[in-house]
Amino acid sequence: MTVQPGYGAAGAARAQMRASTVDRDRAVELITRAYTEGRLSKEEHDARVERAMTAGTFADLDSVVIDLPGGRPSPPPAPPATNTLAIISLSCGIGQLIGSRGARSAGRVRPARGWRWPA
Known about the structure:
- By secondary structure, the chain is mainly alpha-helical.
- The protein starts with 20 loop residues before the first helix and ends in a 14-residue tail after the last helix.
C-alpha cells in the first residue's frame, strides 16, 4: 500500500469523521517513511505510531502527520468551469418560449414567410 500525496489536514466536515484501519495504516506508512528518511528520531517515530494507531478521527490522524512531507492538505478541487455558451443558449431559449407564449395565447401564431399549408 502506498501513501497518497496530500494525506493531511482535516477539512471541517472530514475532521470529525471516524478513521478506519486503512487510514491509520496510511498514516503509519507516512510516519515510517519520514523515519527512514531521517526526519524523525526513533523515539518520535514510536510516539507518533502509537498516536496514529489509537487515533479515532481524521483530525487525530492529521495532527500526527501534518508536519511531514505528504501530510499537508491537498488543494481543494477547482470549481467546475461554467459553460458560457450553454448559459446564453438556455437564456435565449427561455426568452423564445416566453415571447412565443403571448402570440399563441392570442391565437395569432403565424407561419414563417414563404410557408404554405400542405394541399
